[in-house]
Automatic annotation (TrEMBL):
<dbReference type="InterPro" id="IPR036397">
    <property type="entry name" value="RNaseH_sf"/>
</dbReference>
<dbReference type="InterPro" id="IPR048020">
    <property type="entry name" value="Transpos_IS3"/>
</dbReference>
<dbReference type="Pfam" id="PF13333">
    <property type="entry name" value="rve_2"/>
</dbReference>
<protein>
    <submittedName>
        <fullName>Transposase</fullName>
    </submittedName>
</protein>
<dbReference type="Pfam" id="PF13276">
    <property type="entry name" value="HTH_21"/>
</dbReference>
<dbReference type="InterPro" id="IPR012337">
    <property type="entry name" value="RNaseH-like_sf"/>
</dbReference>
<feature type="domain" description="Integrase catalytic">
    <location>
        <begin position="108"/>
        <end position="270"/>
    </location>
</feature>
<comment type="function">
    <text>Involved in the transposition of the insertion sequence.</text>
</comment>
<dbReference type="InterPro" id="IPR050900">
    <property type="entry name" value="Transposase_IS3/IS150/IS904"/>
</dbReference>
<dbReference type="InterPro" id="IPR025948">
    <property type="entry name" value="HTH-like_dom"/>
</dbReference>
<dbReference type="Pfam" id="PF00665">
    <property type="entry name" value="rve"/>
</dbReference>
<dbReference type="InterPro" id="IPR001584">
    <property type="entry name" value="Integrase_cat-core"/>
</dbReference>
Length: 275
């Protein structure tokens, strides 16, 4: 065949090798694209190239974040991040006692259920306003308790606290940190903290950095979920908030601060290590 075509044998073999490499590269690129699309869709379009790169490497792929980002851009795969929108949910103009700032921006702790941080955020809904009270474990970054309701009352934050206590069963002495909102400073809430043998801690007035971890969670919640979703009814909002927190955020969403593990997985590995 080489004689008929007037080419050298070495030229033919070189062409054949390059063709095989090209076919192998195209197959790998096609398989890589398929996996990137799957991981992107599995996160409900929330993961960008850094997290997808981590997941690919965990599966054995040798890829750079730059390549993953390039492929995602070529195919229009962009993580859903919405613009910021803030509604004030803190009423610090009250006469209730203010707890000392025990936490004092010390956001590192040695085990689960030693420090919880709490806050309230606004959730827009066409059927009416909704407010989400959340409690986050500082060690695992897990949402240990939450409650969604149409009124920003003490009952709202009490329900979130009761759920967290029932689910986690923490030992005595847990530090519970919040802002100075009237709901957290109320007599009923302080009594519940005493009942659960928890130590109250509150941020300084007007200092959002004192409660930065729960503020960060609510920021993520808004950017990649709330403001990317149109809640027509309160029932829809309840269902989808449940799915985001319980099925995605706690169980699946990887965190760089946890070594790119989910809160549930990080917690499970901790207890496995001490058993």
């Amino acid at each position: 065949m080489c004689e008929a075509l007037g080419v050298s044998r070495s030229g033919y073999y070189k062409w054949a090798q390059e063709k095989a490499k090209e076919n192998s590269y195209q197959k790998r690129r096609k398989a890589l694209l398929a996996r990137i699309v799957w991981l992107f869709k599995d996160s409900n379009n929330r993961y960008g190239s850094p997290k997808i790169t981590r997941l690919l490497r965990r599966e054995g792929w040798e890829v750079s974040e730059r390549l993953v980002g390039k492929i995602m851009n070529e195919h229009g795969l962009r993580s859903c991040v919405s613009k910021k929108f803030r509604v004030s949910t803190t009423d610090s103009n009250h006469k209730h006692p203010i707890a000392q700032n025990v936490l004092n921006q010390c956001f590192r702790t040695s085990a689960p259920n030693k420090v919880w941080v709490a806050d309230i955020t606004y959730v827009p809904c066409r059927e009416g306003k909704l407010y989400l009270a959340s409690i986050l474990d500082l060690f695992t970054r897990k949402v240990v308790g939450w409650k969604l309701a149409d009124r920003m009352t003490t009952d709202l934050v009490l329900a979130a606290l009761d759920r967290a206590y029932k689910a986690q069963k923490p030992h005595k002495g847990l530090i519970h940190h919040s802002d100075r909102g009237s709901q957290y400073a109320s007599e009923e809430y302080r009594a519940r903290l005493q009942q659960y043998h928890m130590q109250a801690s509150m941020s300084r007035k007007g200092n959002c950095y004192d409660n930065a971890c729960i503020e960060s969670f609510h920021s993520v919640l808004k950017k990649e979920f709330i403001y990317c979703t149109k809640f027509r009814t309160k029932a829809q909002a309840q269902q989808e908030v449940f799915e985001y927190i319980e099925l995605f955020y706690n169980r699946k969403r990887i965190h760089s601060s946890l070594g790119y593990l989910s809160p549930d997985r990080f917690e499970a590995l901790y207890y496995k290590g001490i058993s």
